[in-house]
Amino acid sequence: MISDTRVVAIGGGTGLSTMLKGLKLHTHNITAVVTVADDGGSSGMLRSDLGMLAPGDIRNCVSALAEVDPVMGELLNFRFRDGHLKGHSLGNLFLAALNETSSSFDEAVKKFSRLAGVVGTVYPVTNDAVTISALMEDGSVINGESNIGVHHDGGVNRIERLMINPDKPRPVEGVIRAIEKADIIVLGPGSLYTSIIPNLLVDGVADAIKRSKAVKIYVCNIMSQAGETENYTANDHLSAIERHSYEGIADIVIANNAVIPEGLKERYAAEHAYEVEIDAGRILKRSKLVQGNLLLIRNDRIRHNFSRLARTIMRLGSDINYFENK
């Protein structure tokens, strides 16, 4: 049964778009607030060539919420393998064309969403051409979203603070209102410093989350991420979000506790990625903690089971103590 629960999901990357596939099975009143700080791959090339905002994460979310023929869904994500278009996805190019004929990027996203038959609303968090930088513990600075995840130091020199340029970019009209009116606000899953936190640095977003009476949920990543969260526990993830917003931003933290096969953990370790430790005692000092089997293994990659995750989110939204009563 489809409810009228108002869900706002904030983030970017494959984590957000995967979760949206599950949420749309429960409510059509979904708003995705998506980062536009990406400067690598197809998005980076289009930003450089056309001066537009990063379309990749937007495209993924539109595709996830689209109610179209499966063939059309595949076309939106089709990526050219050869020639001058190598590396570009058709959906990114389509959005680039719409951007050229629109007064703003968010208007182009609205057109794209309409043509794709999107359930709910997809917003770029800002129309400003933002870039991000990471201030490290040793005082050095890494500039650019695509460079933040490629430095490997074993987690010794951590990210101290994420910075955004221009400072306090303006939110797209509708973003703040959607957050304030939400019944459930979800942060993550997704890259901590390059998908989730950039949204919180846009002017007014963190304040709107604080004002909102919604149930606020953080979905912790199952694995750490090289260059971003090496050696991070679940509480370290939450603390980083709080440093860039406010303490107590999450009423609930959702974390996977299913056992990951040893062989798969070894393959991830070769990529400097490790299972995130759930340090429950530290989290429970300020947030509720819900653990469960949320693991999905597909093509030897670890993902959240979007169906189970969505059911968990919706149950918590209707009763914050639901899992404590089981």
Written description of the protein model:
By secondary structure, the protein is α/β, with parallel strands linked by helices. It has 2 domains: 7-35 and 125-325, Rossmann fold, CATH 3.40.50.10680; 38-123, no CATH class. The chain is built from 14 helices and 12 strands. The chain has helices at residues 13-23, 41-50, 56-65, 70-77, 90-100, 105-116, 145-148, 175-181, 192-200, 205-211, 234-243, 262-269, 280-283, 306-318, and strands spanning 7-11, 30-34, 121-124, 131-136, 141-143, 159-165, 184-187, 215-219, 252-256, 288-292, 295-298, 301-304. The chain has a 7-stranded parallel sheet, sandwiched between helices. Strands 5-4-6 form a 3-stranded antiparallel sheet. Strand 11 and strand 12 form a beta hairpin. Helix 1 (13-23) packs across helix 14, helix 5 (90-100) crosses helix 6 and helix 8 (175-181) packs parallel to helix 10. The protein is globular and about 50 Å long. The chain starts with 6 loop residues before the first strand and ends in an 8-residue tail after the last helix. The mean pLDDT is 93.
Please give a handful of descriptors for the protein shown:
326 residues, alpha/beta, Rossmann fold, 2 domains, seven-stranded parallel β-sheet, 12 strands, 38% helix, 17% strand, globular
Q: What topology does this entry show?
A:
Blueprint: E1 7-11, H1 13-23, E2 30-34, H2 41-50, H3 56-65, H4 70-77, H5 90-100, H6 105-116, E3 121-124, E4 131-136, E5 141-143, H7 145-148, E6 159-165, H8 175-181, E7 184-187, H9 192-200, H10 205-211, E8 215-219, H11 234-243, E9 252-256, H12 262-269, H13 280-283, E10 288-292, E11 295-298, E12 301-304, H14 306-318
Parallel strand pairs: 1-2, 1-7, 2-3, 7-8, 8-9, 9-10
Antiparallel strand pairs: 4-5, 4-6, 11-12
Helix pairs in contact: 1-3, 1-14, 5-6, 8-10
